Every structure is written in C-alpha cells, then in structure tokens.
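Let's inspect one such protein example.
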Amino acid sequence: ANTLSLHDALPILSFIKDHLEESFEMGKLSGYTHISKYHLLRLFKKQMGVAPHQFYIQEKVKKNKTGIVKK
C-alpha cells in the first residue's frame, strides 16, 4: 500500500509508546509492522507529519515531563 491510514497507524503509535524505555530501532518497528524500514518511514511521515524516530522523541519528552519514565 502507498498510504498508511490513521486506523493502521494507531497500533504503530501504541508500539512506539509502549517501548519508550528502550532505545528506538527502526528495525524493530519494521519487524512489528512487516513493512520495510524505508517504506514504513515514508508512510509514517506522510500520515503523521514526523518521522517515527521524531515521534518517539516527542513521546519520550512528554513522558519525562510527567515523570512516568525514569532513567
């Protein structure tokens, strides 16, 4: 597919949020979705407006501000 619907993106967003305590690896996200890293990067960025790694960073910052993630 050449598009990533919001419905399809929700499990990906949840996966990223559930793994904030780990380092971000595009390969893990690619394995989870069964989409190549490069294709997933393009689809995600087109749908969400940011790359998956940037979304991960934004979410990690939000969690750190609320004190949920402890490092």
